[in-house]
């Protein structure tokens, strides 16, 4: 695992410079494409070319259950997790999968992968289900460490293996996604500790708990944080995280190590990113946040990571849905940088100078 953490290269700054020079000469007023220009230049650094050409998009959905769900922190019971895994894998008239992420992925041509990272159920065999569980659900983070250090390592490496497979299958853009009743509680605890913030400021309603449920959820996070003062990133993940969060961390690290772009979906993914960037600072250069989600604490994560979201649609579903929605924006940013003609190529007067 240490080899993986240490294998993430910095952006290719020579490619960044070439992309910036090209942006300045494209047939448009300078800055007219707004944030697409910045995204295109960042993609150049990721892929190591001044004219990036990313193709395939893969969303890797890791599902895991959380012992803390028994504390009443969710509006839905834990039985939802295995039922939704079945929904991800179901045959429908429209194609594989009947969940939101499946429908959105089909609309943009993305491939969906599904991992059992630790679902608390006996899942039936399915050829498209990646089995990586070491335990049926994490432990109750309010009373004890959610995972052991060994379990964390196994799930990080399992996530990395799935990301490698996705890239071998042609994905240049990787979207880690998740499913797990109770995982916004785990993400809130990680975020509070990693950012040294009060739990109330980063704990939201998740699946839609009422005021009493939110108060209970904040107290659960506060109780968990009081168990240990640790700030070591991997220990924080083991103490307060979940198996799907560890798996997503592995996906991010491996994708970055292979010089692929990673789209961050929302709050739970952001908690994995906080751990990842603390371990491997260059990881942040490969992260492209989809949008600021409706969950309390997500904006604080993005501010700490110095990342600017692409949109604000009040999403809070998870599954990687927001990340898949953002993929066409990245593809468009790369396409405009790569395919637009420069003033000189188009024979537009004034080509000998930078467009004003």
TrEMBL record:
It comes from the Bacteria. GO terms for molecular function: nicotinate-nucleotide-dimethylbenzimidazole phosphoribosyltransferase activity. Its EC number is 2.4.2.21. It holds the Pfam family DBI_PRT. It is an enzyme of class 2 (transferase). InterPro entries: Nict_dMeBzImd_PRibTrfase, Nict_dMeBzImd_PRibTrfase_bact, Nict_dMeBzImd_PRibTrfase_N, Nict_dMeBzImd_PRibTrfase_sf. Keywords: Cobalamin biosynthesis, Glycosyltransferase, Transferase. Pathway: Nucleoside biosynthesis; alpha-ribazole biosynthesis; alpha-ribazole from 5,6-dimethylbenzimidazole: step 1/2. It catalyses: 5,6-dimethylbenzimidazole + nicotinate beta-D-ribonucleotide = alpha-ribazole 5'-phosphate + nicotinate + H(+). Belongs to the CobT family. NCBIfam families: cobT_DBIPRT, PRK00105.1. This is Nicotinate-nucleotide--dimethylbenzimidazole phosphoribosyltransferase. The gene is cobT.
């Amino acid at each position: 695992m240490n080899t993986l953490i240490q294998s993430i290269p910095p952006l290719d700054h020579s490619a960044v410079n070439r992309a910036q020079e090209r942006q300045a000469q494209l047939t448009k007023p300078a800055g007219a494409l707004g944030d697409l220009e910045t995204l295109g230049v960042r993609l150049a650094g990721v892929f190591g070319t001044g004219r990036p050409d990313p193709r395939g998009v893969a969303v890797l959905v890791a599902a895991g259950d959380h012992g803390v769900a028994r504390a009443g922190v969710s509006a839905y019971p834990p039985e939802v997790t295995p039922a939704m895994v079945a929904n991800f894998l179901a045959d429908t008239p429209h194609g594989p999968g009947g969940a939101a992420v499946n429908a959105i992925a089909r609309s943009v041509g993305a491939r969906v992968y599904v991992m059992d990272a630790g679902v608390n159920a006996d899942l039936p065999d399915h050829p498209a289900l990646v089995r990586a569980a070491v335990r049926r659900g994490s432990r109750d983070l309010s009373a004890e460490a959610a995972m052991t250090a060994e379990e964390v390592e196994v799930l990080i490496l399992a996530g990395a293996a799935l990301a490698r497979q996705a890239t071998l299958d042609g994905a240049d853009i990787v979207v880690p996604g998740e499913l797990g009743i109770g995982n916004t509680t785990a993400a809130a605890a990680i975020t509070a500790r990693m950012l040294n913030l009060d739990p109330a400021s980063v704990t939201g309603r998740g699946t839609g708990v009422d005021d009493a449920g939110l108060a209970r959820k904040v107290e659960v996070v506060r109780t968990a944080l009081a168990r240990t003062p640790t700030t070591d990133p991997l220990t924080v993940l083991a103490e307060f995280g979940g198996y799907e969060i560890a798996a997503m961390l592995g996906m991010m690290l491996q994708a970055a190590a292979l010089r692929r772009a990673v789209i961050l979906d929302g709050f739970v993914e952001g908690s994995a990113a906080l751990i990842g960037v603390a371990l491997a600072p260059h990881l942040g250069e490969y992260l492209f946040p989809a949008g600021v989600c409706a969950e309390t604490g997500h904006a604080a994560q993005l501010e700490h990571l110095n990342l600017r979201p692409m949109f604000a649609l009040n999403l809070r579903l998870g599954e990687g849905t927001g990340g898949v929605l953002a993929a066409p924006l990245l593809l468009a940013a790369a396409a405009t940088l790569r395919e637009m003609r420069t003033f000189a190529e188009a024979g537009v007067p004034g080509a000998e100078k930078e467009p004003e």
